[in-house]
Amino acid sequence: MKTRLLVALLLAVPFFAHAEFTGPRASSSSAGSRAVVTTVAAANKAAEDTPVLLEGKITRQLASERYEFKDATGSIQLEIDDDYLPAEKFDQTTPLRIKGKVDRRWNQRQRYIDVKSVQIIR
């Protein structure tokens, strides 16, 4: 009985270890501290690793895994691993929902979106 209780307590410890303070003066590195960006114009000005949720269209493929994306506020480059592309075919007229984060190449000022999910909007 004591052994089972000890094992249960040891298994529960990792669940409590991931807690994080989110109150006043919380660290800016906390995941909940950055608002989700929803426009291309805002993504072009956002800090690296800022989460994005964009709706618009991929207008053209620039290179392998690189695409141009446009919404009503502007355009930005996307980097999409083939694993994250939808199973259905789509073209430049298909509305899409893009989830990812803002990133930047080490030698460029231009931002792009590192995409983790692409959904076709119906």
TrEMBL record:
Record carries keyword Metal-binding: no
Keywords, ordered alphabetically: Signal
Superkingdom: Bacteria
First and last residue of the signal peptide: 1-19
NCBIfam families: stress_OB_fold
Protein name: NirD/YgiW/YdeI family stress tolerance protein
Organismal lineage: Bacteria, Pseudomonadati, Pseudomonadota, Betaproteobacteria, Rhodocyclales
